[in-house]
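Sanity check

After download, print the first record. It should look like this:
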Amino acid sequence: IRMLLVFIDETSDSKFKDYFGLSVATINYTKYPKVKTEFQKILRKSEWDETIEFKGANLFSAKSGDVNVSIAERIEIAEQVIRLNIAKANARMNFHYLRHTAEPKQHGQEYLRLLPMLLARALPKAPSGAGKNLISVTCDKRSDVKLRDLSEAIAPVLESKKYVALEEPTMVSSNFNTVGVLYADIIGYLAARIDTISNDAELL
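Expected structure tokens:
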């Protein structure tokens, strides 16, 4: 049996309220154990508090995340975990990002509307063969998105790509153990900063 693992997170901007981004990370199940183990090893070596998630929004803020780890150290951690996905033959994980503008109160609605579009780009056609078209979808938890609505929104995309979902999509509260979601978060955060940095004099 083979399975494609899909991790989804969204990002926004505290200064540019209308900004909304969606990030998708995909990885083959055979590569996930090494990536997760090494990711956690890097955090432990850096003495990052395991009860605090290592997320993009904490990279440049000395007041959030593990306050005992400096910003310079956080940037080094991010570089190391991203470097884990560079293999000699090919990347272990693939990332896709979509940006949009909408009023904050519409972000949940836009999440459901835009995610199928992004998944259609991010997912390769399922391989043929018994059990090889299994897919698992895990999302960071959102209070304004219902699991049933999420499942219905992405079902047509999975069907068109010939995948069979492992049960239903799951929503998790990101933490030390949700490495796939943390990757989607970090890449999404950095992509959003690239989008907004030209308008953000304070960050520059």
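If your output differs, re-run the checksum step. Summary of this record's structure: The first helix runs from residue 32 to 45.
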